[in-house]
């Protein structure tokens, strides 16, 4: 039988899970609702069981599960100190899954796992010093220096969305003012568009991107998001000197409408030093699951297999 | 004979050198002018020779020299890729010293070496995740995560003084606008005071601190420096989650007039997370030399001796 793992990415609204085999092929994707607390744990458990059976029918032997989640995650103990959207506090997520499932389970941080995956088989392959800026509903970063992911003293590193970009600026849902996230997150772009221009209905950042060049309000709101990102990347460049900054998450789906303007702003702001290279994520929304799979394989005797994975391959049923 | 090293801290105006013996006692301090280029190299060489003789007369055997400098420093090769104030570009500083002196020479970055020293025997003892903010004429940082100093892809990490704190704010001598350094460096505080209040002569930040509570302009300029530092520390807290931030350099001589206000500002700005601990440097202006001594001993068979150093001891002649 071929070795495999189940990789699970727990989000604030959805749990995404898939089987990844030892050759690095992702298959059998399933999703479930994430309503927080014990419900989300039950959904994760059920997805892992279902996918394990599907894998078995395919001749795959699931040896471990890898689970990644937002929040303050201690990968060493498998506990989640705090995850606001999921209602978890000092929660032993590993014990809640490993026991009932009878499987080894790794527990990791979603964005740091995505950073691990981008380095392993995505946009940051072969790069030892880079930052992945995950531009989702909120914004978080995976910071890699000298090949090592930065966790920080309390596993809280990477809160790039709450760097103060405009002191005393726009209120952020977090309670502070002027946070990067208040201008440039997937939730901020449509919120700011609606605030400036009540007439048109937009539900997401993609709608605003669709109006670029047509609607001056969209141009302005997007321009302000890009400029805030330029300041944020400028700050982390000064502090960390990365060779590369990868833009991921939903907002990165805007592609060249994001990458080009951020590059130009960054070059303008840095003045006396070269800008780090900017790239779009190549793993997209699956980055967290790829990271979870890499972390899960590390628990197994087949762990070395991940070194042979050279690019993301999905045959998802 | 007792083993010793010569430790040299090259600054933009002064070279400071001392002998440090294997018991961690610093002695025989000497300084010389730093006018850049080959002149500074000659001064460094001469200080090392003089101190080596003084040490020998004291029964100390100088086994190596440690030299630290600002700029883009590659410690592995001993070269300085760029140091603007010293006029060095792709300069093999180690070769320029080690050959003529017939001594092993370590070459390091001044602020990173200071960070190493604060961790070894200063304010950051026993702390694996911290940032040293060196508030001198300019501002630079030593970033330590999981016990490792962050160098970055091009040895340019730690340029904390040029994080953009106020977008499109005050012009910085570097050519950018709104840099932390434009508000809170040792050079910025008296410059901003003079710009606001031509009547009174102040030559340094200490003069402005001396006017606090007496001169409302001093209060305002200092308050703005403190607030800019609060934003800077808030940003690096979000990104790196340090347990501790050490304030060093000339401005830290202000003591409680700096520490208390920065602490209060930081607590106010962070809102939903605890602030990292803030401390003043305990090694002060000697931090770079202590770091140079630690790096120099690492080149010798006596290197293990530094583990026994528990606090800075200076008997300087």
From TrEMBL, chains A, B:
InterPro entries: ATPase_NBD (IPR043129), ROK (IPR000600). It holds the Pfam family ROK. Signal peptide: none annotated. Belongs to the ROK (NagC/XylR) family. This is ROK family protein. It comes from Cryptosporangium japonicum.
């Amino acid at each position: 039988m071929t070795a495999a793992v189940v990789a699970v990415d727990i989000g604030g609204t959805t749990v995404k899970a898939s089987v990844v085999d030892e050759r690095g092929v992702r298959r059998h994707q399933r999703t479930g609702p994430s309503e927080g607390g014990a419900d989300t744990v039950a959904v994760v458990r059920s997805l892992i069981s279902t996918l394990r059976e599907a894998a078995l029918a395919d001749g795959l032997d699931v040896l471990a599960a890898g689970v990644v989640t937002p929040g303050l995650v201690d990968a060493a103990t498998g506990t989640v100190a705090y995850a606001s959207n999921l209602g978890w506090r000092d929660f032993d997520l590993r014990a809640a899954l490993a026991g009932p499932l009878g499987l080894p389970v790794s527990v990791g941080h979603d964005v740091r796992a995505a950073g691990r995956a981008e380095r392993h088989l995505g946009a940051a392959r072969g790069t030892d010093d880079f930052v992945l800026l995950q531009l989702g509903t909120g914004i978080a970063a995976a910071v890699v220096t000298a090949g090592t992911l930065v966790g920080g003293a309390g596993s809280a590193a990477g809160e790039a969305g709450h760097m103060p970009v405009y002191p005393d600026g726009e209120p952020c849902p977090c309670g502070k003012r002027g946070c990067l996230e208040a201008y440039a997150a997937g939730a901020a772009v449509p919120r700011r568009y609606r605030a400036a221009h009540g007439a048109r209905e937009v539900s997401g950042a993609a709608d605003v991107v669709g109006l670029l060049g047509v609607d001056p309000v969209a141009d302005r709101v997007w321009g302000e998001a890009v400029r805030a990102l330029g300041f944020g990347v400028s700050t982390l460049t000064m502090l960390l000197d990365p060779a590369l900054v990868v833009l991921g998450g939903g907002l990165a789906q805007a592609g060249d409408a994001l990458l080009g303007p951020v590059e130009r702003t960054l070059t303008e702001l840095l003045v006396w030093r070269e800008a780090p290279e900017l790239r779009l994520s190549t793993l997209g929304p699956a980055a967290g699951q790829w990271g979870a799979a890499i972390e899960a394989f590390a628990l197994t005797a087949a762990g070395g297999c991940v070194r042979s994975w050279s690019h993301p391959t999905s045959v998802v049923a």
